[in-house]
Amino acid sequence: MAAEQTAEQFRGQARLPHFASPRRYDLRLTPDLPACVFTGSVAVSIGVAAPTRFLVLNAAELDVATGGVSFAPQGSDQVLQPLEVTNVPEDEILIIRFNEVLSIGEGTLTIAFKGTLNDKMHGFYRSVYELNGEKKNMAVTQFEPADARRCFPCWDEPAFKAVFKITLEVPSETIALSNMPVIEEKVNGPTKIVYFQESRIMSTYLVAVIVGNFDYVEDFTTDGTRVRVYTQVGKSAQGRFALEVALKTLVLFKEYFAVPYPLPKMDMVAIPDFAAGAMENYGLVTYRETALLFDEMHSAAANKQRVAVVVAHELAHQWFGNLVTMEWWTHLWLNEGFATWVSYLAADQFFPEWNVWTQFLEESTVGFKLDALAGSHPIEVDINHVDEIDEIFDAISYRKGASVIRMLQNYLGAEVFQNSLAAYIKRFAYSNAKTEDLWAALEEGSGEPVRTLMHSWTKQQGYPVINVKLKDGKFQLEQTQFLSSGSTGVGQWVVPITLCCCSYSRQAKFLFHGKQEDFDLSASGFTDCQKKDGFWIKLNVNQTSFYRVSYDEELAARLRYAIETNKLGAADRYGVLDDAYALCMAGKQKLVSLLHLISVYKDETEYTVLAHIITTSLHIAEMMVIAAPEELVHLKKFLIDFLEPFALKLGWDAKSDEGHLNALLRGTLLTALAELGHEATINEAVRRFNVFLEDRETPLLPPDVRKAAYVALMQTVSKSNKTGYESLLRIYRETDLSQEKVRVLGSLASSPDHDVVREVLNFILSPEVRNQDAIFLLRGVSSGAHEVAWQWLKENWDYILGAYSGTLLTYFVNITVSPLATDEHGDEAEEFFKSRTKANIARTVRQSIERVRINAQWVKNIKAEADLGNVLKKLAYKH
Question: Where do the Aminopeptidase N-like N-terminal domain residues begin and end (predicted)?
Answer without folding.
Answer: 22-206
